[in-house]
Design goal:
heteropentamer; A alpha+beta; B alpha/beta; C alpha/beta; A: alpha+beta; 3 strands; C: alpha/beta; TIM Barrel; Alpha-Beta Plaits; four-stranded antiparallel β-sheet; 22 strands; 31% helix; binds flavin-adenine dinucleotide; binds flavin mononucleotide; binds iron/sulfur cluster; metal-binding (chains C, D); iron-sulfur cluster binding (chains C, D); Dihydroorotate_DH_cat (chains C, D)
Chain lengths: 72, 446, 422, 422, 446
């Protein structure tokens, strides 16, 4: 059993990596499998990356970033 | 037995929060509870236990101390089996509530907080002198102060508390407990003049003159003589003095010593267990009568056996025999038998002819009762019977109008019980009597 | 001594402890004994057309050998004629002018019935009225009590009728057997209620006798649902009080009822918005004297907190109460086990292992002693371990520093909505 | 060994003890441990769109120092993706083919959502479905759980949608936060439910911290109502089960939930109409092993009663349950005190004196010992004294011979109606 | 002391229903509970206590008796402070759960109901002989019968139960308890041939021939000689025989007698308290070492003191002195001191030269251990060390293939504990070992 924390860290790292590379979240769809998050980048290739975010903590994480950026 | 002073730490430990809560929640909160009736000071036991259950520990402590100004000491030394706990209805279905321990839990809390629990009454301009700061004197003082009297206690010793401070062994009642009780009384404005013996440092007549009323709460005195040969040898002790030393002086080791304690009352038990805890090899309690007649409480008897004290019933000392250095070496005893019951139904012990025998002992501790403060009592001109002050049963007034008496000084001749809790109750009664008397006088004179 | 006097919509009493309308307030003899014991007020056993009761009315459940964790009854309103009750109310009020006497009323949902009874009880000098729309059995089947209390329009209409003639404050007592208590509370307010009280009893069946297979209680072999009350219902009552207190349209004082047995319960109800409390079961279990520790404990608490008056408590925690959607999802708490205090029962371990997040590990120290270790990163802070832990102080729930700033569900959903795909 | 196997609407399990949908059934690891421990079935933690939980989710109340008399949570449904859950369900079912695995489901009230999830969970081989219309917080605010469960039409519609595609039995789990549970139960039946289960948790607030004045639990200083469960809610649940069981229009099996912690609780629920029981709080408090005594105690009870199968219990007490109007007003019971057994706590005296009918007198026998005497003629048979009495056997409630033949309130009113003046 | 036989009624009373429920509800139901680990038979303690809490008393009794076929006796005689209760986690927060008393509550219920709790297994055609029907033998028999073996117990005495029936004083363990346990074993089809001493009434070789396996559970024998003068005087007793008499013959009064018990193990305590309860004037336990080295359990020591037994440590008897009628009159003793620790860390007691003294005694009871059944052990050809049968620690197999041993016969030389509960556990182990051995043989031979 992979500890649930580790699953979250894995997902978070993927999110962070994309953001670090300049991608921004442009679309979020929640479903029975969690959240499908579409990242886009104006210049990089590919211009879109899609992540399925499964863990609750990671779903909380990316939405926190969104809420935070909106309120800022 | 490495460190004797460890042996003089309090034996019983207080209840933990969990234990106190469990126990408090076990109480039924009886209506017109028999435990209350059985407590000489009528503490509202279900009420204070309920307060512990609701974590209103301050309320619990106040309920206790209101009814019993000596409630912290009583929580430790009351013969609860014979009193409150003995009357608990749960004796009939499981185990009685540990009332004493819960009382200790609440009063320990109050001691730790050390806030004054009570306020002095509006001063009423009257003054009362109290002779003795034992349980009886302190209790009377606390109540009188709450009624608004100006109270002065005269105390011969250097600390207040009476036998609670000096007489009951530390491992059952550490001195800080009675000192806290005295402190609570002082906080109400009561003056305690220590190191002041009435009849010596101040005359009885002086007190009668200076105060509107006088309370005699001087307790009893030292242990009387046995009247046998060898009583003045080195190694023969007065039990009360002996215990007092363990509470006031550095502890001396009794390792290797063989001790005989003469008598089987509360004092004998305290002295015997003290001797054990000082490291004695063996401690024997010698008593003329049988286990049935012994005045020590059941719990004391059990405690003493647990501590390893041995009992020799129907055994009477005849002579203390010295070694060449004038120290105790042997005790000659004689076996007794119980004769026919006398008028009071008490069987007198009779020596069995030719049954003399000796036992090896190094220490003899006398614990055959206490003598009376005859001189003091007579200085106040009080009627008494062999030093037991005569009083009106209800008011505790003595033969002298404004002099009242309470505590051990009125114990004896089948009158009362020599207990801390009854001394406390009598102190309250005296305070009430004085208040009734002086208050009514006020009405007539003004 | 702190000031314990309370004023509920104009009804004053020496302290916030009232007896609820129930058997303890059935007669003048009882209410007078109660006032002597220290109770601040009494809501008289509900008046109305006198009924007939069954024998075998009450039942109770124990919890782990402790009696009366919950209590239940199939009793109806008063079975004594109105005149008798009014005479005793009059006498009691005369003896105790400063104590609050509130008349609980229940009549058929007809205007003239309400007018009649309100006038008659006010004539004897009650301090207020409580309209009982709550009794869940027997009366309900006659269209009274809960049956009318479950219909907002009837609640409003009857309150209006009572208010039309009432000169004293009108309290409306609500039934908890309802989907949303704030709806009936608002109906009462709309009808002009000066205050609301809650809760009455909850529909329940205490148990079945495992030998006779009859319900408990059983009347000649038959049972019917009764009303549940006592310590067990407190969380339900507390929530209903809190929901009403925080509702902007319900701006009247609240009298809190349901499972109050100690001064602590009273403090909680008051912090959550009640102006005072009413008690039934605790008094029935232990008699009137329980009020002594309630008063004393409340006073000591206020003194300890440095509060001069009990009224300073009212509603102080209401602002902390909200909907789930307003809770902060980024708040993080985790369990921390104090090995020194822990008594090694392993209850926390098995609770977390079997029924939470498998993050309390059993380990052995170098010296061979066992200890427990919380894998903090996997701990979700559910509190379970600290709840089951028998040893006070062995488990602390500690707050972790924020990794992300606070965010509620509502905030999250608002933002995500703007990112929604088609 | 009695036969403990149960069959609820076609779902079979080795015994009637299931774990309710809740944290204990959150994962395959846990459910497998539970089956190993002896549980007969498990309703998987509710599946749906995975949510995000708060930290600090649970709270509990103690009763007289005894922990977890009631439990409370603000947790939502599963926070794990459906696929993960389905994989674990599949594996668990493979390892334990004879144990019952029921998938609890909650999705938005849309037909296609229900179709999708039902198909997907049935694909992995569950034995049945439980539609969760009960969760009282969080989900309700999103129009799910209790919010839809409180509207009979939505209950019926969603049940219908699930049944349209379901191949396994559909159980509808009802919320107790409702004015009349039989209304939603009937809606479920009308929608085609094969069985109903109850209760989910009850809206509640566990308490307020007397030092911080924050609610318990508190999430970053804020609280919200949670769902109440555990021993305290049993009488409420038992009544709801019984009301459904005795309702002629609700002729489907019932899975009883709410406060079950012992075999005795299970027997009571089954006698009152349940086919089996579900357990959450008791398992969270003590771990899975509690099922051992449940099984053993149930078996010993059945053997003692000479019953070969647990199913012989089902519904045996339902016929004894009725409305208040059908109770016999002429049945008479009175208290009788056994002086030999009595321990003289006087609790019965003061309870009757302060809060009932003042008919237990304190007397003194000729030999000076106190005893209590019930003035039978004034005793109304309320049971209070026997409830508060701490000593088993000290008070018997004895049935008196009838003075008048049985008469119920309904009978009385029918006759009186013909005598009505104008 | 009017009626001595009253003194031999069970001292402890059982829990009332209310007490049992309260106590059962106090248990935490720990996970992987330390109390279980501390019980030699690993009774699932939280499980049986939970069953008591839910009034499933039958289930509780079964849980207990499944793990421990001698569970009713153990409930009374286990040194619970050292075992289960000593390990209870509540020692750290309040008071440990009264596990022994709850165990007694459940087993008393079962005794009163007297239904068979277990069923014999499907007969497997194999037979086992057991020598001795004490705890070890009965336990092995019960388990073997459940596995399907045909079991025959040979018992020299006229009743089954071993020391539980004959050796442990009635006021701690009345004989009906162990007889019920034996009855439960018989109910599984086990034959108990009483009055049949192996080696006398039937040869060891006969057993080895007739049975597929033999279990040696003959315990230990009588008390050895002190090897001092006067040991054969009238008034000198073997402690085990002395106690046995109180369980099997009319009680004789010891009123006025002064008793010395030599030794300070379990047997000494039982003998000493027996003597007290027979009315003795004084009973002294003499022990060569100090209280620290004493093998009696703490609870036994406390109990003995409570009963009034006196202890003389560092005291060794030298000579028993007779009066003119050849009866014991005095005991000459010498004081001891503890020497340097030996290899095992045990300090040997050394006599203090010139410290001899005599004490008046009428009765001397020897309780300095038990001798071994050498002859029997050798008749089976078993390896042993001073009568302690050598065994494989895991299987309890002896040096002879199909012979196993359990209980006191393998106690000694630092191996095991002489306790009822460990005998019971070893009986279970033996049964399992035999089953494994014979079952696996079945596989290979058929
Ligand atoms: C060893 C021992 C153990 C006991 N154990 C218990 C027990 O376990 N439980 C229990 O309830 N009771 C016990 N008692 C009894 C109890 O201590 C007394 O009953 C109680 O202290 C009496 O209180 P009192 O105030 O009357 O007298 P005391 O406590 O004796 O106080 C009298 C005070 O008066 C002072 N005094 C005397 N003469 C004068 C004077 N002339 N001028 C000024 N001051 C004077 C004394 O110095 C003393 O301080 C024990 C007594 C003893 C001796
Ligand atoms: C006085 C006393 C008090 C004790 N108190 C306790 C206590 O409080 N708690 C505790 O746990 N333990 C106590 N013990 C120890 C406990 O009794 C033993 O450890 C336990 O009984 C050993 O069981 P056993 O089956 O091995 O032997 P035993 O109980 O001695 O049984 C052996 C049986 O074998 C029989 N036997 C012997 N030889 C033959 C033969 N040749 N043929 C046939 N049968 C034979 C004997 O008659 C006897 O019935 C006490 C012992 C004594 C003596
Ligand atoms: C036996 C009984 C009778 C009751 N009768 C009435 C009543 O006549 N009118 C009323 O408004 N409430 C009645 N109640 C409800 C109580 O007033 C109160 O609302 C409820 O018991 C909750 O409080 P508690 O938990 O303190 O008992 C009754 C309750 C009980 C137990
Ligand atoms: C923490 C917690 C979470 C729960 N989650 C769910 C859930 O996801 N789905 C559901 O149907 N019921 C849920 N419940 C309700 C339980 O299944 C059950 O109905 C309720 O707890 C009553 O049973 P009990 O008294 O045995 O606990 C939850 C209960 C608790 C305590
Ligand atoms: S003062 Fe003594 S008798 Fe009174 S309640 Fe306290 S301990 Fe009991
Ligand atoms: S008698 Fe016992 S149970 Fe009753 S109130 Fe007193 S202490 Fe509590
Ligand atoms: S708080 Fe919950 S998740 Fe964390 S350790 Fe405790 S039980 Fe486990
Ligand atoms: S529940 Fe508490 S006491 Fe028990 S092991 Fe865990 S931390 Fe320790
Ligand atoms: S049953 Fe009710 S009325 Fe009768 S004696 Fe008991 S408490 Fe009083
Ligand atoms: S409540 Fe029970 S035990 Fe107490 S006095 Fe009444 S009958 Fe006796
Ligand atoms: S058999 Fe003995 S050690 Fe084991 S649980 Fe019972 S009393 Fe404790
Ligand atoms: S250790 Fe104590 S509390 Fe824990 S299960 Fe054992 S007896 Fe119960």
């Amino acid at each position: 059993m992979t500890a649930s924390w580790q699953l979250y860290v894995n997902e978070k790292e993927k999110i962070d990596a994309l953001l670090h590379r300049g991608y921004v979240i442009c679309e979020v769809t929640e479903s029975l499998e969690g959240a499908t998050v579409i990242f886009s980048h104006p210049t990089a290739t590919p211009i879109q990356e899609v992540l399925t975010v499964e863990t609750a903590d990671a779903r909380k994480y990316f939405s926190s970033l969104l809420v935070h950026s909106v309120t800022k | 037995l490495v460190n004797v002073s460890d042996n003089f730490r309090e034996v019983e430990c207080g209840l933990t929060d969990v234990e106190a809560s469990d126990e408090a929640n076990r109480c039924l909160y009886c209506y017109d509870a028999p435990c209350i009736t059985a407590c000489p000071t009528s503490i509202n036991i279900p009420s204070f236990i309920k307060s512990i259950a609701t974590t209103n520990v301050k309320g619990a402590a106040k309920t206790i101390m209101t009814a019993n100004p000596i409630g912290a000491s009583c929580a430790r030394v009351c013969p609860t089996e014979e009193l409150c706990e003995g009357a608990c209805v749960l004796n009939h279905s499981s185990k009685p509530i540990l009332i004493g321990k819960l009382q200790r839990y609440a009063t320990d809390w109050a001691m730790k907080r050390n806030e004054p629990l009570f306020k002095a009454g509006e001063p009423n301009g009257r003054s009362v002198a109290i002779v003795g700061s034992g349980p009886a004197g302190l209790s009377a003082a606390r109540e009188l102060a709450r009624f608004g009297y100006k109270v002065t206690i005269y105390e011969a010793k250097s600390e207040a508390g009476g036998l609670n401070t000096y007489g009951i062994v530390s491992f059952r009642l550490p001195p800080y407990v009675s000192l806290w009780e005295a402190q609570q009384v002082k906080a109400l404005g009561v003056t305690i003049k220590t190191n002041t013996a009435v009849g010596k440092d101040i005359a009885a007549s002086e007190l009668m003159k200076q105060y509107d009323a006088v309370v005699i709460a001087c307790g009893m005195s030292h242990v009387p003589m046995l009247g046998i040969e060898g009583e003045t040898l080195s190694g023969v002790h007065d039990a009360i003095r002996f215990v007092e030393q363990t509470k006031t002086e550095p502890l001396s080791s009794y390792v290797g010593k063989k001790v005989a304690v003469i008598g089987a009352g509360n004092t004998a038990i305290d002295a015997a267990t003290c001797a054990m805890r000082l490291g004695a090899d063996s401690v024997k309690i010698l008593y003329r009568r049988t286990v049935e007649e012994m005045t020590a409480y059941h719990f004391e008897y059990e405690f003493a056996k647990q501590e390893g004290v041995e009992f020799r019933f129907l055994t009477s000392p005849q002579k203390i025999i010295a070694n060449e250095r004038g120290e105790v070496k042997e005790l000659e005893c004689v076996r007794m038998t119980l004769g026919e019951p006398d008028a009071k139904g008490r069987k007198a012990p009779v020596a069995v002819a030719g049954s003399e025998f000796t036992m090896d002992v190094d220490i003899v501790i006398k614990a055959i009762g206490q003598t009376r403060h005859h001189a003091l009592i007579e200085a106040f001109g009080l009627e008494h019977h062999h030093g037991v002050v005569a009083i009106d049963q209800h008011t505790l007034q003595t033969s002298v109008a404004n002099v009242f008496a309470c505590g051990d000084v009125i114990f004896g001749d089948g009158q009362g019980e020599a207990m801390v809790v009854s001394a406390a109750q009598q102190g309250k009664v005296v305070a009430n009597s004085i208040h009734q008397r002086l208050a009514s006088r006020q009405v007539t004179t003004h | 001594m702190a000031d314990l006097r309370t004023n509920l919509a104009g009804i004053t009493s020496p302290n916030p402890f009232w007896l609820a309308s129930a058997p303890p307030t059935n007669s003048g003899y009882q209410v007078q004994r109660a006032f002597e014991a220290g109770w601040g007020g009494a809501v008289w056993k509900t008046l109305g057309e006198p009924i007939i009761n069954t024998s075998a009315r009450f039942a109770a459940i124990s919890f782990q050998g402790k009696k009366v964790a919950g209590f239940n009854n199939i009793e109806l309103i008063t079975d004594r004629p109105l005149d008798v009750n009014l005479k005793e109310i009059y006498e009691t009020k005369k003896r105790f002018p400063h104590h609050a006497i509130i008349a609980s009323l229940m009549v058929e949902p007809k205007q003239e019935k309400w007018h009649e009874i309100v006038k008659r009880v006010e004539d004897v000098g009650v301090d207020g009225l409580e309209l009982n729309f709550g009794c869940p059995h027997g009366m309900a089947e006659r269209g009274m009590g809960a049956a009318s209390g479950q219909q907002p329009d009837l609640v409003q209409a009857q309150t209006t009728w009572a208010k039309e003639v009432a000169k004293t404050p009108v309290i409306v007592k609500l039934t908890p057997n309802i989907t949303d208590i704030t709806v009936t509370a608002r109906a009462a307010v709309n009808g002009g209620a000066d205050a609301i009280s809650m809760i009455n009893t909850i529909n329940s069946l205490m148990g079945v006798d495992l030998d006779s297979w009859q319900t408990v209680p059983s009347v000649a072999g038959k049972g019917a649902h009764g009303g549940y009350c006592g310590p067990a219902v407190k969380p339900i009552a507390l929530n209903m009080v809190a929901e009403c207190a925080r509702h902007p349209a319900i701006a009247v004082p609240i009298s809190g009822i349901g499972g109050v047995g100690t001064w602590q319960d009273a403090v909680e109800f008051m912090l959550m918005g009640a102006t005072g409390v009413q008690v039934c079961t605790a008094a029935m279990h232990h008699g009137f004297s329980i009020v002594e520790d309630m008063i004393d404990g409340l006073n000591n608490y206020l003194e300890e907190k440095g509060l001069a008056s009990v009224s300073e408590l009212i509603g102080k925690s209401v602002a902390n109460y909200s909907e789930w959607g307003n809770l902060d999802l980024n708040y993080r708490t985790v369990a921390s086990i104090n090995t020194d205090v822990c008594i090694h029962c392993n209850k926390c371990h098995i609770a977390c292992e079997d029924t939470s997040h498998q993050c309390i590990e059993r380990k052995i120290a170098l010296d061979g002693t066992p200890f427990l270790h919380v894998r903090e990163e996997d701990c979700v802070g559910c509190n379970l371990c600290s709840i089951v832990c028998p040893e006070p102080g062995a488990i602390d729930m500690i707050t972790l520093p924020y990794e992300q700033p606070p965010m509620t569900w509502n905030e999250r959903q608002t933002v995500l909505a703007t990112y929604k795909g088609k």
